[in-house]
Automatic annotation (TrEMBL):
InterPro entries: AtLOH3-like (IPR055298), HATC_C_dom (IPR008906), RNaseH-like_sf (IPR012337). SUPFAM superfamilies: Ribonuclease H-like. One of its GO terms (molecular function) is protein dimerization activity. It comes from Oryza sativa subsp. japonica. It comes from the Eukaryota. Keywords: Membrane, Transmembrane, Transmembrane helix. The chain crosses the membrane at residues 20-41. Pfam families: Dimer_Tnp_hAT (PF05699). This is cDNA clone:002-180-G06, full insert sequence. Residues 6-56 form the HAT C-terminal dimerisation domain.
Amino acid sequence: MLVATKKHTAYEFVYKLLKLVLILPVATASVERVFSSMNYVKNKLRNRMGEQYLNVV
């Protein structure tokens, strides 16, 4: 609505705040997904490292 009435230039701070509020949940969910997948990969690598050390001994 701010862009349609071209008031986003007059209320720049409010416009940026609204954009942040709308984008934040999406960004948070994607970051959580990345950390979750990274955790999965790290656990797999740790398990493989442990198996290699056990096989050598």
